[in-house]
Amino acid sequence: MKLKFLVRSLILGGMLFFLAKALKDNWQEVVQIKISNQGWVYLGSALGVTLLAHIWTGWVWSWIFQTLNQKVSGFWAIRVYLKTNIAKYIPGNIWHYYGRIRLATDANIPTSIATLSVLLEPLLLAAAALLVALLGTSQNRLLQVFSLAVVAITIHPLILNQGLKLVSKLKNKGNDVKKIEHYPFLPLLGELGFLGLRGAGFVLTFWALHPVNFNQIPILISSFSLAWLLGLVVPGAPGGIGVFEATATALLGSLFSPGLILSVVALYRLISILAEVVGAGRVWVWDKGVP
Predict the structure, then answer these.
(1) Is the pLDDT of residue 18 over 50?
(2) 143 is a domain residue
(3) Using CA atoms, how far apart are residues 291 and 288, in angstroms rounded to an integer?
(4) Which of 241, 248, 281, 291 is the most buried (most CB within 10 A)?
C-alpha cells in the first residue's frame, strides 16, 4: 500500500512540476489571452456538449447491462451515472465505481453483474480512446492497423473474461464474476460516441481562445483522446487531474504555443468539472421531486 501511494505521489508530483514549469516559462502569454464574445459562446457550447457526453455514456452503461443479459432502464442508468460521476474526484479514484455498484444492488441487480458492468466500462472506454487516438493520426498506417487489431482482440470475450477475473481478484471480489458471452460491439460504439463528444467539447474550448482550421481538428481530437486515456489509466490524482493536462500540453506544445495550450487545458478542466456538477445537481433536483 505504501509503495502504491509512493508511485501515485511521484507521478502526480512529476506532472504538477511539468505544468508548473510550463506555466512559469509562459505565464506572460497566458495572461494576455482574451476571450471574445464569440469565444464565450464557444465555451457555453463546450459545456453543453460535455454535459451531453456524460448523459450519453450513462445511457451506454445501460447497454453494457444488456450485454450481460440484465435489463435496466436507460433513464435509471443515466441518473445513477450522473449522480456518482462527481465522486471520482475523491482521493482513491474508486468511489464513483463503488457508488454505482451500491445503487445497482439497491435496484435488485445482482452484485456480480453490477460489479462486472463497472469493471467493463473503463475497459471499453480505454479501447475507444485508443481507437480515436489512432484514427486521428495519419502516421504509420501499418502500425495503425496492427494497433486496431490488438484493440479488437483485447475486448474479445475470451480475453475480457480472463482480464475481468484477474481484476475482480485484485479488488477482492473473489471468483463470483459473470462471464461475457457476446462481443461488446454496441457498447464500444457507444463509448466511441462519448469520446467524440468529449473531443468536440475540447475543440470548442480551443476555438474559444484561438481560431481552428478544419485540418487541425483530427490532431486535436487524437491528442485529446490519448491525453484522456492516460488520465484514465495512469495512477495519479483523482479524475486524471494533472495527467491529462500534462499529456495534452506535451502532445500539442510543438504545434501551438505553450501558453495557449495551458490556457485551453485549464479551461477545459473547469468546463468538465462544471458539466459533472450540473449533471449531479440535476439528478439531485429530480430526486427531490422537483421537475
Answers:
(1) no
(2) yes
(3) 9
(4) 248
| pLDDT tens digit sequence for 249-283 | 888 988 888 888 888 888 888 888 889 999 999 88
Query: Is 85 a domain residue?
Result: yes
What pTM did the predictor assign?
A: 0.83
CA gap 211, 39 in Å, rounded? 10
- Written as nine digits, the cell of 58 is 450513462
Instruction: Specify if 21 maps to a domain.
Output: no
Tell me how far the alpha carbon of residue 17 is from its chain's centroid: 23
- Domain ranges, residue 254: 36-284
In total, how many domains does the chain have?
1
